[in-house]
Design a protein that fits this description.
The protein is an all-beta fold. Helices cover 2% and strands 52% of the residues.
Length: 231
């Protein structure tokens, strides 16, 4: 144990942990010998927040989500200081100045001061992957229609909640309805009507497959490149 304690008994030393950078100096340290971690300032050699479950440091916003005592809050990624206390049952990362949280059972979007900007009046969907804005729009599942739509930053439906799937691919919105696919541009103009059995959006080309099993390829401006694709 004296020679190999860090390998066979990691909990005997406080120096064993996995480190997740939140910014240059602020890190989340997941301690091997405990169920919880801590937010730590490496420059000041100081523990800022104890007993932290996890930190979600994705995105470029100054505020990041942290979990403590089964609640969610937000801390400043550059100072490690708590900005919004852990009072939410669920919370997502900030995107385009807004963050989704669960408040009193409802899906609400807040700003950096914790003020309620959008109250959707809908419940959080358990299986929803994330509530994040991209180019001004966020995919939201309507508990009224049981379908997906796009909400804008004002809380209005930019695309009505009538789709089975919505996916952002290279700044284009791929949607599906009744096993057929279509595409909207970033400005939500119709690029392809919902009439194709599948659509593949790649970095430089879009391939569409019709009900007649014929596939074609277009560029991202909609210009035809290949009128008959052979697999």
């Amino acid at each position: 144990e004296y020679l190999y304690r860090e390998w066979i008994r990691p909990y005997t030393t406080e120096s064993v942990y996995e480190e997740q950078h939140i910014s240059n100096n602020i890190v989340f340290q997941d301690l091997y010998y405990k169920d919880k971690g801590r937010v730590y300032d490496k420059q000041k050699d100081k523990t800022l927040i104890e007993e932290v479950d996890w930190v979600a440091s994705e995105g470029n916003d100054s505020l990041v989500v942290f979990a403590k005592d089964n609640k969610r809050g937000y801390l400043n990624r550059f100072t490690g200081e708590i900005v919004l206390p852990a009072t939410y049952t669920r919370a997502w990362i900030f995107s385009e100045g807004l963050a989704a949280v669960e408040k009193d059972g409802n899906l609400v979007f807040i700003d950096h001061q914790g003020r309620e900007v959008i109250n959707t009046g809908m419940q959080v969907r358990n299986m929803h992957p994330s509530y994040v804005f991209h180019n001004g729009y966020c995919v939201v599942h309507s508990t009224v229609t049981d379908k997906l739509g796009l909400l804008d930053t004002e809380g209005n439906w930019a695309l009505q909640a009538e789709y089975d799937e919505i996916e952002l691919c290279h700044d284009l919105w791929k949607v599906s309805k009744d096993d057929l696919y279509g595409v909207f541009t970033a400005a939500l103009d119709t690029m392809y009507n919902i009439e194709y059995t599948d659509i593949y959006i790649h970095e430089d080309v879009i391939e569409v497959r019709g009900k007649d099993h014929i596939a074609q390829r277009f560029d991202h401006e909609g210009n035809l490149l290949v009128d008959f694709v052979i697999d």
